[in-house]
Amino acid sequence: xxxxxxxxxxxxxxxxxxxxxxxxxxxxxxxxxxxxxxxxxxxxxxxxxxxxxxxxxxxxxxxxxxxxxxxxxxxxxxxxxxxxxxxxxxxxxxxxxxxxxxxxxxxxxxxxxxxxxxxxxxxxxxxxxxxxxxxxxxxxxxxxxxxxxxxxxxxxxxxxxxxxxxxxxxxxxxxxxxxxxxxxxxxxxxxxxxxxxxxxxxxxxxxxxxxxxxxxxxxxxxxxxxxxxxxxxxxxxxxxxxxxxxxxxxxxxxxxxxxxxxxxxxxxxxxxxxxxxxxxxxxxxxxxxxxxxxxxxxxxxxxxxxxxxxxxxxxxxxxxxxxxxxxxxxxxxxxxxxxxxxxxxxxxxxxxxxxxxxxxxx
Length: 362
Hints:
It is built from twelve helices and 13 strands. The chain is α/β, with parallel strands linked by helices.
């Protein structure tokens, strides 16, 4: 089967944040497709962690995205065709305790990345990953489109909105599409994803990892906001959007160099409490306690993904039931069978995408 027109086969791909949950899945998928992959990130932030478990073959540079000199050297030495920028401080509650680190990592780190790519002639495309939380959220039930106003109540959300503004300004100033083929040869886009779930996530202050810790230790699960509604999405659905966007940039489709939402369909927006009930269905009884973080957290957050659907031809493959079955099966394999099912689940996902005639598979 041909994935993304085989555009990644033999390509040199640089991934920042490759030791994180989403970055490690992307790293694995790229290697699965025959890409030559290099990553740049901090050490994995948990033990166990997905990156170590998948045993990647590519280059792994362990360093901070705020180290501009090291980052530029790493990118220039590798001479990648495309860069996926996922390195970030990704946690809302952590951002309240560490706002300076959050802004430095998410804003200045992105600037370091863009400047390094600008100076590296081999780079033809850059996909900067931000978040669904970049929008000024008024709990709009119709969901937010890419043209809606950016904002952010907490330091994490606003730092990501700042990084979106930074990318737009940087592109307008140095990598404008009107000058493509004249003063530069690069296309840059941003990708705004929802609440991503999948096997191998052990991060702090995330619903699924918290559930898994309760499952594996038989400790009580504390739920802060049971009625909060989020755009839950399996990591492979999210990454298929990033990879499809990257394909379009590598194919020099100038009009695709802009922000994109990647999230589930409207019917897949469900509450935290519903996800807990689904977890208990697959994992068995987990003791639950409802509490409060004492910090502001959004009640409802929804994305409008019509642009990705109509202009890229992208569609999510999995519904909530399929997504969370894969998630909980992954952890059950890990804890009960001592087995890493990442490759198996990727192959299952690709087969399902083929059955659904997804645009990125032939």
